[in-house]
Amino acid sequence: MPPIGSTSQALDSEDAGTPIESFDVLIVGAGLSGIGAAVHLQRRCPSATYAILEARDVIGGTWDLFRFPGVRSDSDMYTLGYTFRPWTHANAIADGSSIRRYIVDTAREAGVDAHIRFGHRITSASWSSDSALWAIEALRSGSQTRMRVHCRFLYICSGYYSYESAYRPAFTDEPLYGGTIVHPQFWPEHLDYTGKRVIVIGSGATAVSLIPEMAKSAAHVTMLQRSPSYVFNLPTIDPIANQLRRWLPAGLVNPLVRMKNVLIGMAFFQLARRRPELAKKMLIRLVRERLPPNFDVAKHYTPRYNPWDQRLCVVTDGDLFTAIGKGAVSVVTDEIDAFTRGGIRLKSGAELNSDIVVVATGLKVNLLGDIDFTVDGVRMEISHRTAYKGAMLSGMPNMAYTFGYTNASWTLKAELTANYVCRLIRHMHSHGYAIAVPRRDSKVVEEPFLDFTSGYVVRALGVMPKQGSLRPWKVYQNYFMDAFTLRFGRIDDDVLQFSRAHSASST
Ligand SMILES: Cc1cc2nc3c(=O)[nH]c(=O)nc-3n(C[C@H](O)[C@H](O)[C@H](O)COP(=O)(O)OP(=O)(O)OC[C@H]3O[C@@H](n4cnc5c(N)ncnc54)[C@H](O)[C@@H]3O)c2cc1C
After folding, report:
1. Among 383, 500, 489, 387, CA closest to 436
2. Which positions ≥6 away from 37 have C-beta within 8 Å?
C-alpha cells in the first residue's frame, strides 16, 4: 500500500460537492471484535488512518443487544476478554452487562471511541483495481440518507447473525394463544414474569442461561425441547485464577489462565472427536450426579449427536440442576402440535399451560454484515468464495473478516485475525503494494465452511463461504494451528497475490 496515513483527505465528490472521506482501514462493527481490531491496529500500524462504521448507536454488539434475564457468557473471560486488557473481575463467567462495560471501557481507554461513526449501516462495498480502493456506501439511521467513504482495506467485524430478525419458526395456531410470546433477542424491557407460568421453547445456550434466572421469580418454568443438548457445569469463579491473583500481577495471571483454559478446552474437544462414546458417557454421568435420582436423564439429557458436533451448553454453578431439583423448573422433551388459548398442545397429546412463551429457537446467521460486494463491477456471492486462512476470501482484494471459533472463545480467533491483518498491512506498506488478493487454486477441494450440526449452522451453510481441504484454505477450529499460521506463517505465500496496481479479476 502507498504510505499509510496519507489518505484521510477528499478524493472524490459524488455528493453534490461534498468531499468523500478516505481511510486506510475501515472497520465494520463496534462489537467485541471491532473494538479489539481497532486497538490492535492503533498499536501495530500507528500511522494508519481508520474509522469504525457501526449500524447501531452504541458500542458492544451482542453484549448490548441481548438483554434477556440471565444473559451471560458461557466462555471464561480469560479467553473471551482481550489479551491487551486483563480481565480483573472475580467471576470468570461474566454477565452481559459486565461484558458490555468491559468493551465500552476498552474503547474509551484506548481512544477508539473517537473513531466510531454510529448509526451507519454499510449496505454496499465496491472494489476498483484501478484506484485500489473500496467505495463504501452506508445508510444513516434516522435520516435514511446515504453516506459514502473510501478505504484501502476493509476489515469486517460484523458478527455472524442478523440484528433485525431471529430464527423463529411459525407454530400452528399461534394467534389463538392468549398469553405473551417473546424472543430472547428482542426482550421487552418491562416484561414482568413474577408469579407467571412460563414455557421456554429450546434447549440451547440461551434457554440454559435464561431458565434458572426466570425460575427465581416465575411461578414455574417449563423447558420444552424437541431434542436434548449436551449440558455441562462450570463454576462462575475460577479458583486457580483467583488464587494466582493473590501472588502475581494481572498481566501475568491472565496469559497463564488463558493458556490453561485453552488447553483444557482443546483436550476435551480432541477427546470428543477421537473417543465420542467416552466423552458422551462422561458428560451424561456429570449431569446425572447433579439431578434428582428419579429424573429421566436418558430422555431429557442424552442427545442423539456426539459431543462437539454442536456447541456444548454451559450451566453455571449448577443453577439449572438446582432449579429442577427444587421443582421450579421441569423439562419436557416432545414436539409442538399447536398453540392453544392457554398454552401449547404437544404431539404426545399432553398440554402445557402458560402465561408467557419464550421462543428461544436461535439466531438467523448473517455473514459479512449483509453487505452487497462487487469487485471491478462483478457481483461477489459470498457462498462462491473460499476462506483463506480463515481471515480473507478468495478473489476479494484488501478485505478481511472476523469469524470466531465454534469450539472455543470467539476472541481467541478474533485477535489472531487482528494480528494477521496488521502484519499484512505492514507487509504491503513496506513493499509498496496496493493490492493483496487470495487466488484460489482450482485443485483445492471445497468443503463446508463449518463442520458443525447445530441448526443455525446447517440452515446457513448455503450462504456461507466454503473452506478448502488444505492449508491455507482450511478453516481450523484450533487455536494453536491458527496461531502458527496467522502469527508466524509467511505473509507472502504464493497464494496471496500482491500488486502495485492492476485489474483484480475474481477467482
Ligand atoms: C447470547 C449470546 C451469548 C454468546 N456467548 C458467547 C460466549 O460465551 N463465548 C463466545 O466465544 N461467543 C459467544 N457468543 C458469540 C458472540 O457473538 C461473540 O462472542 C462476540 O460477541 C462477537 O463479537 P463481534 O464483534 O464479532 O460481533 P457482534 O457482537 O455481533 O457485533 C457486530 C457489530 O457489527 C455491527 N454491524 C453488523 N453489520 C453491520 C453493517 N453492515 N454496517 C455497520 N455495522 C454493522 C452490529 O451492529 C454490531 O454492533 C454469544 C452470542 C450470543 C448471541
Report:
1. 500
2. 27, 155, 157, 402, 414, 417, 418, 421
φ/ψ of 386, rounded to 5, equals -120, 135
Task: Tell me: pLDDT of 321 over 50.
Answer: yes
Residue type, 402: T
3-state secondary structure 441-505: CCCCCEEECCCCCCHHHHHHHHHCCEEECCCCCCCCCCHHHHHHHHHHCCCCCCCEEEECCCCCC
Give the position, in ligand 1's atom list, of the atom nearest the Cα of 29. Answer: 34
Rounded CA gap, 184 and 258, in Å? Answer: 30
Protein residue closest via CA to atom 49 of ligand 1 = 61
Around Cβ 456, how many Cβ atoms within 10 Å? Answer: 19
Residue of 269, 403, 410 best suited for mutating to test ligand 1, as the one with most atoms within 8 Å of CB: 410
Residues 6+ apart with CB under 8 A from 410: 32, 33, 75, 80, 404
Q: State if residue 362 touches ligand 1 by the CB under 6 angstroms criterion.
A: no
Q: How far is the CA of 424 from the centre of ligand 1 (A)?
A: 24
Task: Give alpha helix (H) positions in 304-409.
Answer: 319-326
Give the model's pLDDT for residue 16. Answer: 52
199's grid cell: 414455557
Q: For ligand 1, is residue 51 a contact (CB within 6 Å)?
A: no
For residue 426, what is the enclosing H or E element? helix 410-431
Q: What is the pLDDT of residues 361-375, one digit of tens each?
A: 999 999 898 999 999
CA distance 136 to 127: 9
From the list 493, 445, 447, the residue with the least C-alpha distance to 472 is 493
* Residue 212 CA to ligand 1 centre (angstroms): 24
Measured from the CB, is residue 410 less than 6 Å from ligand 1?
yes
157 pocket-lining for ligand 1 (C-beta < 6 Å): yes
Q: Judge contact between 301 and 287, C-beta under 8 A.
A: yes
Spatial CA neighbour of 204 closest among 303, 111, 90, 292: 303
Residue range 87-105, pLDDT digits in tens:
999 999 999 999 999 999 9
Is 399 in contact with 134 (CB distance < 8 Å)? Answer: yes
Q: What is the chain's alpha carbon radius of gyration, rounded to the nearest angstrom?
A: 24
pLDDT at 9 over 50: no
Give the pLDDT band of residue 1 (cuts 50, 70, 90).
Answer: low
Q: Rounded to an integer, what distance in angstroms lies between the CA atom of residue 443 and that of residue 358?
A: 48
In what helix (H) or strand (E) does residue 304 lie, and over which residues does it extend? none
